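Intended use. Records like the one below are meant for learning the mapping from a protein sequence to its folded structure. Do not use them to infer anything beyond what is encoded.
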Amino acid sequence: MQPLPTLFHGGRMSPYLSIDRVVAGSIRRAQTWQPATRRRQHGNRWTRILSTAQTSTAQTSPDGSSSHGRLAWSTAMIVAALALLPQLASEAVGQAPALEIGSQRELFIDNGLIDQLDGNVRLELHHPVPREIAIVHDAPWEGTGSGYHSIFHDGSVYRMYYKAWHLDAQQGKLNTGRHPLFCCYAESDDGVQWRKPELGIYEHDGSAANNIVAAPGLYAPLNADPGHPAVFRDDNPAAPVDAKFKAIFRSAKPNGLLPFKSADGLHWSPMTDTPILSGLGAFDSQNLAFWDPAIGKYRAYWRIFTAGVANDKVWKPAGIRAIR
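Structure written out for the chain above:
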């Protein structure tokens, strides 16, 4: 007669009984919450229970001499496992450290930060409520194609950076060449009422009385496209003073992204002499970057296509527009 399968064999769980899989899964989940010393304690306790169960049925079950012995041995193992689960779960929950989130606001999109919900409490997705218009892109250097807004709070002001572009549609034809794609700046004290300061940085149509902070052709030999901007305040404690603000602009040719830095958020200079992430995407959108204090690194997200070819030499994208 074949020997009986056991719950533990070679460090793995046996699927001999359906209850074994439930027990095994519960044990593993509990152990993932414990430090190494706690896991060893659980393991030793589990071994003692197994030894006790095996000893109580040793006269009949280990050699498989009878069906009664097999049933008694399996039953003892299941009872031992079920008796251990409440204690393991209780200790696991008791040892789980609380996640420190400070006083910052959190976007509860799932249960990741929620221990439990009591009473008539639920997660609900609210629809945005239209209010008054905050800003109009009606300047001669702006237009109907404006977009890609980056907004963040910086001290006593809110800063906004956006693409300024105009799309002129007449008689079924689209004209995109009225003016180049600019990166413009606006600011606000409350995030509702916005002003466009006359910065005097870049001249457009004979006047520098505008809010343009970046324009094509200013950073040769780099081929920067400031019409695809993503700007952020760098909260990296190691960031130098002249790089308090950072941005990534699309590189038209060669393909990739160009990191920029600024001390005041208005005057920008490139950080590299070649694009980064070259050849890894299409980048034909607002490509995002920011400092993530949770991991102590910078993160970036950019546009790709799941098929076809989209680079500075061949533009035949296919598949699905996606984010990498």
